[in-house]
Amino acid sequence: MSDARPTPPPSHSPGAGGGHAPSAPQRLDARAQALQAILPEVLRPFSIALSVALDEVVALVPAEQVVEVCRSLRDDPRTRMDFLRCLSVVDYGDILEVVYHLWSMEKRHKMVVKVRVPADKPEVPSVTGVWKGADWFEREGRDLYGVVFIGHPNLAPLLLWEGFPGFPGRKSYPFYDYKEW
Amino acid sequence: MAEAHPLEVRELLINMGPQHPSTHGVFRMVLWVDGERIVRVEPHIGYLHRGSEKLCEGETYLQIPTLFDRLDYLSNFNNELTFCMAVEKLMGLEVPERAQYVRIILCELNRITSHLMFYAAFGLDVGAMTPSMYAFRERERVQQVFEAVSGARMMHDYFRVGGLRQPPPDNFRQKVQDILPIVEKGIHECDTLLSRNEIFLARTRGIGIISAQEAIAWGMTGPCLRACGIPYDIRVVEPYSLYDRFDFDIPVGSRGDCWDRYMVRVEEMRQSLRIIRQALQQMPDEGPVLAQGARRLPRPPKGEVYMRTENPRGEFGVYLVSDGSERPYRVKIRAPSFANLQALPVLMRDCYVADAVVILGSLDIVLGDVDR
User: Fold this and answer.
1) Which of A15, A22, A85 minimises the CB distance to B317?
2) pLDDT > 60? residue A166
3) I need a labelling partner for B86 at 20 to 30 A (CA). Which of A3, B77, B238, B240 fits?
4) A120: CB partners within 8 A, 6+ apart
5) How distant is the alpha carbon of residue B269 from its chain centre?
6) B307-320 as b/e: b if 16+ CB within 10 A
7) CB contacts, 8 Å: A160 with chain B
8) pTM for the full model?
9) Are A85 and A163 in contact (CB under 8 A)?
């Protein structure tokens, strides 16, 4: 099964299209388009880069601003992103990407916030102060990818045992190196 | 005379689990108690962590639904559906209507079996033995349909990217139609047996309350959130597949206590039956069950997608990053039980030790889903 190891694609620039394979087309619905139109206004004080992934608006945010961005997305009456659906970490080799999927219970629209940090110094402020539910998701990100969520009340291992060596979620972690027969 | 030693009152630490009959799997919680009151709870998970997300990165898109069966092992069809739909959404595949109807019927039947399982386990949690017998009798009827369709009772691996592995058996419609009235009667029996029993009410009413605001902040979804009065059901707020063609209600609770969470699930079983009846009526008998352009080894284009569906336990999400090859670059599984369980310390604030088991049971967690 050694051939089953996924090749870490350094050429894979996250979020951007191009490369050999064709990219998925964009299909924004009316709600997402409305959100796309107001986001620059809502997030005016921050340096964000807006893009589109399939049917969702993506805002790329500098790591140090993520808490303020999330808080204004949650509290602004035009966005009201009161629900954190999912928090994931993706390993792109040199950089780690933390992805927040947001949803508004009231407005019924959704968006994605992304933060990119270097893999050798992965530090992201914790959003547990904005959504309490980020708690375990961030602990899992610390466990499997080694992302340090600064300000998290308790970053103890969640899924792995205390003292587990390495970060098994990362592409560099040997996982498919065994021979089955 | 010596001075009397002052009476010392100390907090006591109780370790519950990981092997405990009422933790529904390998789950440990540490309880700090002051007499009969719980002061603090610390849940510990990870005993069933199999690295499913990482495993997915090494498997092809054809193999992954097999892994998804093993996440939430009480609602296998729903898990498979989420993953297949994530890939389909990325590829822009149009799934034939017949396949979509079969999927919906199976998923709703799966919701019924899952909730019946909850009903049985919850009865046992509060000390009622009999309900489990009734629930398992009804569950068995539905399981037989699953077995006839997919060949397996639990790990079906029946949904493919683009449709189904094979068409359902010729008598599928008849088989489902035959069990519907029997299961409906069974659900009614279960309802009358337990729901308004005085002891049951005393054990569950007003226990483990969480406010709607807090439930949203903690990321709770599914029946646990609807019990707080929030009609958040992804089948309605963000319809996927063909769910916008059916007429059904979202049962909601009012207080967000254990009884509400229980009752929402009982009502949901009835709504699922309604959906199945409509789907059976609309389902075409003939036609392909695999999309036109669906390949055995799907290669979705470069990109990323977050697909979410309404699992019996709540929002089941798959965040899929594809680099254009036949294996996904990253699969993140947003498990409903995982998010629901982290609110446990909030639910157990100032409750009695005896209620801890009831509150945990009312969340209806599956540890395969929590730990992944």
Assistant:
1) A85
2) yes
3) A3
4) none
5) 13
6) bbbbbbbbbbbbbb
7) 46, 49
8) 0.87
9) no
B128: pLDDT confidence band, cut at 50, 70 and 90?
confident
Of B303, B306, B343, the CB nearest to A101: B306
Contact B334 A86 (CB under 8 A): yes
Contact B107, B77 (CB under 8 A): yes
- The answer to whether the Cβ–Cβ distance between B329 and A56 falls below 8 Å is no
Residue of B216, B221, B340 to mutate for A, most A C-beta atoms under 10 A: B216
The amino acid occupying position A173 is Y
List the single residue in B90, B308, B342 with the smallest CB-CB distance to A24.
B90
Residues in chain B closer than 8 A to A108 (CB atoms): 237-238
Nearest-Cα residue of chain A relative to residue B56: A6
Complex confidence, ipTM: 0.85
Integer-rounded Cα Rg, in Å, for chain A is: 18
User: What residues pair up with B30 in beta bridges, in sequence order?
Assistant: B15, B42
Question: How many helices (H) does chain B have, and how many strands (E)?
Answer: 15, 8
What chain A residue is nearest to B238 in terms of C-alpha separation? A108
Helices (H), A44-107: 66-75
DSSP B352: B
Q: What tens digit of pLDDT does each residue of A86-133 get?
A: 999 999 888 899 999 999 988 888 899 999 999 888 899 999 989 998
Secondary structure E strands in chain B: 12-16, 28-34, 37-44, 159-160, 163-164, 303-311, 314-322, 330-334
DSSP string, A98-134: EEEEEE-TTT--EEEEEEEEETTS-EEE--TTT-TTH
Residue of B nearest to A111 (CA): B306
Radius of gyration of chain B (CA): 22
Cβ of B306 within 8 Å of Cβ of A86? The answer is yes
How far is it, in rounded angstroms, from Cα B310 to Cα B186? 24
Amino acid letter at B134?
Y
* Residue A9 with chain B: CB contacts under 8 Å: 323, 329
Calpha distance B212→B325 (Å, rounded)? 42
Look at residues B95, B158, B72 and name the one whose alpha carbon lies nearest to residue B372: B72
At B275, list the tokens: 């959906």
Q: How far is B175 from chain A (nearest CA, A)?
A: 38
The answer to whether residue A12 scores a pLDDT higher than 70 is: no
Contact residues, chain B, for A166 at CB < 8 Å:
none
Q: CB distance B237–A4 less than 8 Å? A: no
Query: Residue-wise over B205-238: b if at least 16 C-beta within 10 A, else e?
Result: eebbbbebebbbbbbbbbbbbbbbebebbbbeeb
Interface of A with B in 116-135 (CB under 8 A): 131-135
Per-residue pLDDT tens for B258-293?
A: 999 999 999 999 999 999 999 999 988 888 888 887
- If you measure CA to CA, which chain B residue comes closest to A137? B339
